[in-house]
Design a protein that fits this description.
Blueprint lengths: L11 E4 L8 H19 L15 H7 L4 H11 L18 H19 L5 H12 L3 E5 L5 H8 L7 E3 L1 H7 L8 H10 L6 E5 L2 H9 L4 E5 L5 H6 L4 E3 L11
Helix pairs in contact: 1-4, 2-3, 3-4
Family: Belongs to the HAD-like hydrolase superfamily. CbbY/CbbZ/Gph/YieH family.
Protein name: Beta-phosphoglucomutase
EC number: 5.4.2.6
Length: about 250
């Protein structure tokens, strides 16, 4: 049996979607940038009068990556000392509210996924197939409400026993990352304790969730050169691709 780089005693693997299984983190970052840059230009640069665009790497990693959509909007706006009314979850995308901006971003990301399509990381597919062959149960845990569509587009829906996503979080009142609620819900649905499950994440808030949830092992996936930060936030090991774990012992 292929070694899968995990400690003994684990029974389930909980995979983040964007940046771990699929490169859709890049699509999300581009959609956030397009939405926020348009918003910031319309505001005339804010109090300083100077337009500072959204940084699709630094701002994305610090304020929105891995967070529920509305939390991402709030977090980035706070970094620019901008306050907006919350609005309602069904606010139209042209309304200047937290939910309005979030819905504007969602329209952009759905359009990009539809136009560009999604292909999974080959190393991730090989790894998920290996852990399933080793008898592990698998779940995808994502803050995205578009998780199912991405899984279907990428052709990997059949590799997940459980899906806990942005829709699930709303339905069950689960707090988003950095809180561990969604990962804990996935473990519950798989019938395992947190200590018997492994979290695979590329976002710093995902590392925080893995640590706070007291999961058995946390794997950081470094796609953008933040390995040290992933370790500081709780990663037990860091790889640049899940395929690196194949043939490895923990």
């Amino acid at each position: 049996m292929t070694e899968i780089g995990l400690p003994s005693g684990v029974r389930a693997c909980l995979f983040d979607l964007d940046g771990v299984l699929t490169p859709t983190a890049l699509i999300h970052a581009a959609a956030w940038k397009e939405m926020f840059d348009e918003f910031l230009r319309q505001r005339g640069g804010g109090d300083s009068g100077e337009f500072r665009p959204f940084d699709a790497t630094a701002d994305y990693d610090a304020y929105v990556d891995g967070r529920p959509r509305a939390d991402g909007v709030r977090s980035f706006l706070a970094s620019r000392d901008i306050e907006l009314p919350e609005g309602e979850e069904d606010d139209p995308p042209d309304r200047e509210t937290v939910h309005g901006l979030g819905n504007r971003k969602n329209i952009l990301v759905v359009r990009k996924i539809r136009d560009e399509g999604v292909k999974p990381y080959p190393g991730s597919v090989r790894y998920v197939e290996a852990v399933r062959a080793a008898g592990m149960r698998t779940a995808v845990v994502s803050s995205s409400a578009n998780c199912k569509d991405v899984l279907v587009s990428a052709g990997i829906e059949h590799l997940m026993d459980v899906r806990v996503d942005g829709v699930t979080a709303v339905e069950k009142g689960l707090r988003g990352k950095p809180k561990p609620d969604t990962f804990l819900e996935a473990a519950r649905q798989l019938g395992v304790e947190a200590g018997q499950a492994v979290v695979f994440e590329d976002a710093l808030v995902g590392m925080d969730a893995g640590r706070e949830g007291k999961f058995g092992y946390v794997v950081g996936v470094d796609r953008v050169g933040q390995a040290e930060e992933l370790r500081k936030h709780g990663a037990d090991t860091v790889v640049t691709d899940l395929g690196e774990l194949l043939g490895r012992t923990a």
